[in-house]
Write a structure and sequence with these properties.
By secondary structure, the protein is α/β, with parallel strands linked by helices. The strands form six sheets. A seven-stranded mixed β-sheet has the order 6-5-4-3-2-1-22. Strands 7-8-9-10-11-20-21 form a seven-stranded mixed β-sheet, covered by helices on one side. A hairpin with a 2-residue loop joins strand 2 and strand 3. It is globular and about 85 Å long.
């Protein structure tokens, strides 16, 4: 009797499957355990319980897709509980992660974690270039440009010649400073773990959105109003600042533009330092002018509240992006009661945040006052609108990516319920979509290529017929060996035929549904 051995891998969804925040997935293959992201949830909720339950401090490596806190904000807690394995990310992600984690710690009044824990993270960090191969135990992986923020990465992992794609957050469209995602990075992976932030949304053409933004800005400014654009300190802010800089120069406008965040200068310095990671147009600008595009002439940096002047028509690009704190919440509380002013949200706004409440029509919201440390109730009379410049794929971008990758199976993660459901409906014709919940586990088998060739060769010589049942292959002579969970059992020809017919009927039923 000939038996074709199979190896399996497990993918455990620790967090971030059905919401934005707390992204974390655990890959186990043979003796290798790799953590894909370790994000924090909005509000900075410590993931300590998850770390203990899944023994996350014992993994062989941590891969960080990009520097936004919903993908890396849980790393200090991991370190606090004894994690000492390598942390892999790109060079820009390493530098942006340092300033974002430090800023979050300071905004919390040093309640979240300590500077010592942050420094330990960067002692463990191993930065990589795009396309650079790296091995962790039995797994090889490479990073590819994800087009989301500077240094963001699609991660392609290879397990015995089979591929797994982890998207993190990605955008295929590119913009003023980043190229679109390298969606050609992989073909026919056995599994794709794909984000779905905008799985229910289709973006307008970029030119229309830019035109709408500048028409709104000029109308508000000409009526002596103030415009607030709440934006993430890293990623969207830089894209918007470049748009404003170019428009102000081309139209010779003199209205002041302010970039407000405690890490404004540090963030722009990281962008200047890593300019070679940006788009071709940025590279051309560097060559022809010998200047960084982020040496912005029309943008004034604000890093302290006492620098803010709300007595003149002006534009403020300020963190945080969802009005959960920082300069944006402070400015909103000061300008929201005047009808001539305007708040424009340029990206994703999570459920329950002040930003989402305003977009849903509420006109009385509590905003955090980082001066007093308390909350104040604000009556909102100004104009509130959304003009989306988010660096995520929209529904069509996600569908196109899945069609290009053609994964055998797909886990749809990192999205609210409606976004996940609508995307799942759209991509079922291209891939088998697996049900994903926090705490859930997927098990999949991989055959050893060398062993498969040897066994198939022997099978041809001996005219052995192979069958497949529940993803397990076996050979038939007088009977068959079947793996049932972790046990092997011998079945007769009659039992085998019943099992095969049962599976075929199930497949027909699934196909009809």
């Amino acid at each position: 009797m000939v038996y074709l051995k199979e190896e399996k891998f497990l993918l455990k969804h620790v967090g971030g499957t059905s919401k934005i925040g707390g992204s974390c997935h655990l890959l186990e293959y043979k003796d290798t355990r790799i953590l894909l992201d370790m994000g924090s949830e909005y509000g900075g909720k410590p993931p300590s319980k998850k770390i203990d339950e899944q023994r996350l401090t014992e993994v062989d490596a941590l891969i960080i897709s990009h520097a936004h806190l919903d993908h890396c904000g849980g790393v200090p807690y991991l370190v606090r509980q004894g994690f000492s394995s390598p942390i892999y990310c790109t060079y820009p992600t390493r530098d942006l992660m340092r300033i974002l984690l430090t800023d979050a710690m300071k905004l919390s009044g040093n309640r979240l974690y300590t500077m010592q824990e942050i420094e330990e993270i960067f002692r463990l960090t191993v930065p990589l270039h795009y396309h650079e191969p790296c091995n962790v135990g039995e797994v090889e992986f490479r990073f590819f440009n994800a087009g989301h923020i500077l240094g963001s990465a699609l991660t392609v992992l290879t397990l015995n010649k089979e591929k797994i794609l982890y998207t993190g957050d990605f955008s295929p469209y590119g913009g003023n400073h980043l190229e679109g995602a390298e969606t050609s990075c992989v073909e026919k992976p056995m599994l794709a773990v794909c984000e779905s932030t905008y799985g229910d949304t289709r973006f307008e053409a970029r030119r229309k959105r830019e035109q709408k933004l500048f028409e709104t800005l000029l109308k508000t400014l000409e009526n002596n109003g103030i415009v607030l654009i709440p934006s993430f300190a890293v990623g969207r802010s830089q894209e918007i600042l470049l748009m404003l800089e170019n428009q102000w120069k081309s139209k010779k406008l003199e209205y002041p533009i302010y970039f407000c965040t405690g890490l404004a200068r540090k963030a722009l310095e990281v962008y200047r330092h890593h300019a070679p990671w940006m788009s071709g147009s940025i590279q051309n600008y560097l060559v022809t002018t010998r200047r960084s595009p982020f040496e912005l002439e029309k943008i004034r940096l604000i890093e302290r509240v006492n620098q803010i002047n709300l007595n003149e028509p002006s534009v403020y690009v300020a963190a945080s992006g969802m009005l959960t704190g920082g300069f944006s919440a402070y400015i909103a509380s000061k300008i929201a009661e005047k009808k001539e002013n305007c708040i424009i949200f340029p990206g994703y706004c999570g459920e329950g945040t002040p930003a989402k409440k305003l977009l849903d029509g509420e006109r009385k919201v509590y905003l955090y006052d980082f001066i007093t440390g308390g909350e104040i109730l604000v009556n909102v009379r100004c104009r509130v609108m959304e003009i989306n410049f988010s660096a995520h794929a929209d529904q069509q971008g996600l569908i196109n990516a899945i069609k290009q990758w053609r994964p055998v199976k797909t886990c749809v993660v990192h999205g609210e319920r409606e976004a996940k459901e609508k995307l799942t409906q759209k991509i079922r014709k291209y891939t088998e979509v697996l049900s994903c919940i926090d705490g859930g586990t997927h098990e999949q088998f991989i055959k050893s290529s060398a062993e498969e060739k040897a066994v198939l060769s022997e099978a041809i010589q001996r005219k052995i017929v192979f069958h497949e049942l529940e993803g397990i292959r076996f050979s038939l002579v007088q009977g068959a060996i079947v793996r049932d969970k972790e046990q092997l059992r011998l079945v007769t020809l009659e039992e085998l035929n019943k099992l095969i017919k049962k599976r075929e009927n199930r497949e027909k039923t699934r196909g009809n549904n």
